[in-house]
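To fix ideas, we close by showing one paired sequence and structure record:
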Amino acid sequence: MSVQFLTYLFVGLTFSLYIGIAIWSRAGTTKEFYVAGGGVPPLLNGMATAADWMSAASFLSMAGIIAFMGRDGMVYLMGWTGGYVLLALLLAPYLRKFGEFTVPDFVGERYYSSAARVVAVVCLIFVSFTYVAGQMRGVGIVFSQFLNIDITYGVMVGMGVVFIYAVLGGMKGITYTQVAQYCVLIFAFLVPAIFISIMMTGNPVPQLGFGSALSDGSGMYLLDKLDHVLVDLGFAEYTAGQKSTIDVFAITAALMVGTAGLPHVIVRFFTVPKVSDARLSAGYALVFIALLYTTAPAVAAFARANFVSEIHNSQYTEVPEWFQSWEDVGLLAWSDKNGDGVIQYGPGNAFSPAKPQFVEGRGAHGERLLANGATSSVNEVYVDRDIMVLANPEIARLPNWVIALVAAGGLAAALSTAAGLLLVISTSVSHDLMRKTFMPSITDKQELLYARCAAAVAIVIAGLFGIFPPAFVAQVVAFAFGLAAASFFPAILMGIFYKRMNREGAIAGMVSGLTFTFLYIVWFKFVSPETNSADHWLFGISPEGIGTVGMVLNFAVAFTVARFTAPPPDHVQDLVDDIRIPTGARVAHKH
């Protein structure tokens, strides 16, 4: 059976499963819509959390970015994994004990201020829409390549599916859908990794194959061979780092604290019955996440090695079908600079824009013609980093059913996180802005209606981000983590562990951290991209890592303002004690 038929089959079956689960578990109350009724078992919540957290960036783009950045790409692995540990230890149990619906809810109550709640909602919307842009781009990539559907229409189909189970089922529907999506995405990620590891090294465990000798009789280890091949082509060694130490530290720290401050992940811990279950489900989630994250470096190395061996010095007229199929959707391209009909792959991008624009007609060798010219780089190949995981099974010539399975897994990863993000946006609008701030007299039924309407509007906006994406998936998501690091994390951490922090300090910190980080990213990525280099960065820190500086600024401004303003009222300080001190210990202390 063809790849396209199998992809339609797998995607159709998984989409039917997701929609069926949403109908079965549809929400009837605001508590079910916001936190799934607070009765999700820890094991299932761990799987749902893993699916929520392992987005299109984790499934599609992380291995791709490691494949091209080499050792420097490991900042994404270290930051996201370390951040999850930080979340599990420092925030999840305490926020579950607080026991409300949303992160802005905690900020509003802890800082006894509607203004703080509104600022938190604004921060949440900034972070969530930045993050959801990456997910919708991932949906578009999968649809355009494997289902022969234009990216625009592919995003619309994805929007429709998310609309059904997010708007109908709310958190209850999303939770049980994400359990199914985790099973799909982890199976889809591991199966091709195991196959390719066996083919290249003879070792069925990708994590071990990554460090094994190749089975081609050369006796060379995979990473040694990759280093030699890339150096011969003019690239830096795959295992050598190019980024400065300060930038590596800043990006890793921003991703860590950004993970711990992501509202759509935090809200998952409001769905379990009790505080101990929040910590337990965090542990389960870490195990489920580790299955993918320990495999990603191996997938990255396999993909880069296979890609180079398949295309470099190949006649364009003899390239495999996968090359031209990815070229047709604009995510892979070739420019014959010397007119010899041979593909030359080397350092530097062949084309200046993130995605080359094609014109009608074909070149002398059958290649797609480009509306924009090539740069002076010796490289003739443009490759979008986000395709590496999806193209890897095709490059390795795995069976068609494996290729189709990876497509279904990529959609599961993108849609699961998109649904979680859209839900926190809708609940913040309906619960924090409507119910708690501007329209406190609305009924439970009206609030649920507003939540569904807000989710529908958010899905439309998210779709526009998917149709007009600003950058690579992993880069866009990295910006979201930076914004979360600079805004939410300090406010939540100080709200739990520092009783003296007041509303004035928290609001000033969130506004200053978010504003600084947002403007820095916009300047270097959109306003003045030609200055986006270490020579112009503040302290040598890239836009991906600037959230760490924004976080420090947030803490500094918050502590300074709090020092010169009135302390929180007694009932708020009692709330902090209640969150932090176990009930039994508090009773004993009183006696």
Remarks:
- The longest strand covers residues 358-362.
